[in-house]
Amino acid sequence: MIKIASTYFTIYEQLKKNIIQIILHFFNLFLIILNGKLIAKYYNQDIIGVYNIEFGLFALIHSFTYSPFLQYLKNYYTNYKFILLNSIVYSIILFFITFLFLFNLYYYNILTSRASFLLIFFLLICNFINSVICDYFNLIGDLKKYSLIMLLRNIFQFIILLFYFILDHSSIDYQLYILWLSQLLPLLISLLFLKFDFKKFSFKIFDFRIYFNKVNSYIFPLMIMSIFTWFITFIDKFFIKYFLGFSSVAIYNVNFSLGAKIFLTLNSFFLLFITPKVYSASDFCIKKKIIYKYTIIYIFISVPILLILSFTYMNIGFLLLSENYKSGFYLIIISSISYFILTSCYLLELLFYSENITKYILYSNICASSIIVIFNLLFIKNYGISATGFSILIAFIFKYIFLIFISNKSLYVKL
């Protein structure tokens, strides 16, 4: 209890020190929810369904190509404190691979239009650049600039969505493109507002063949893992689209994402504090102590939120979404519990990422993905989106139990 109290005191001191950044961080949550309210109230359900499916394809490409490389860059900079010019060349190659992926999706009519193809392509590039910068600020503990980037993105997204509603929200002809532009333009604008001084970095160049072999050997397992990571967060929408249609995708995702946003934002707040500590710690035992202590605090904060949501989810649905989606309001509490468990997994996964033993994360994602696929194939026809929601909850529970078991088996740490 003394150690837990000490952790509380540490968090309190960090809250005092970074109060402005923290206010910005939770103001971001308000803007995210407000943007969701605008979309739920004014956008056509089928359009939202199409956007959710296309966004799932965007996430798949990002997870398979950029996400593993971002993890490599994060670990490399943490260890060596300089940037390789080879990384820029490798990034350009990834841009080309991305273009080929998207072109095939467009050629086979999986993407609805050429505009979607181009918007998603540029969004992937801008999102990658933004992620590199955000990861850097996160690693050095600069919460102010990290929060500023997120704030600018959400403010400009709100402005774009609101501007469209003021002009003509009755027409659905361009709603899909506005949704994509509300993702792309804020990224561009926030990067323009951000002053990033590259002169302070030390740049070096290595033999390209050695570098490429080293990167590929590092990211290949992560690429395999990213497929199953994508499965546990996006495959549910594709099952619903196949069996129930785009409108059901919209009802499911609008409700399910509301609960998810609350805990993803709360979790990102914790990760801001934990990530620099875990990556800078040299000993496995110390890393595990840090993660476990903050996880206890995370649970103490999250449980009251879950209790409030369980009694008020109907009122929250009417307030933050739209009456058009009330048939799925119960999904808010299911998603809140699910993403509380998943974000607890994210805290624990830092241990494995920092030690480069990501195979256990892969195994947990394979287990969770299998549960989601099996449950949807068996039950979605008879139970609809309810089956999908509960499949996510059960899968995340199994994922967390697996990670806890592996971390405790590898090394016992007394809290």
Short note summarizing the structure:
With 415 residues, the chain is an all-alpha fold. The chain contains 13 helices and two strands. Helix 3 packs antiparallel against helix 8, helix 4 packs antiparallel against helix 5 and helix 8 packs antiparallel against helix 13.
Task: Give the SSE string.
Answer: HHHEHHHHEHHHHHH
- Order of strands across the widest beta sheet? 1-2
The Rg value, from CA coordinates, equals 21 Å
Calculate the mean pLDDT score and round it: 83
Number of domains: 1
Query: Based on CA inertia axes, which overall geometry fits?
Result: globular
Bin the strand percentage. Answer: under 5%
Helix content: over 70%
Structural class computed from helices and strand pairing: mainly alpha
Taking the sheet with the most strands, its summary is: 2 strands, parallel
Number of helices: 13
Spans where pLDDT lies below 50 across 5 or more residues:
411-415
Q: Termini, distance in Å?
A: 9 Å
Oligomer: single chain
Say how many strands there are: 2
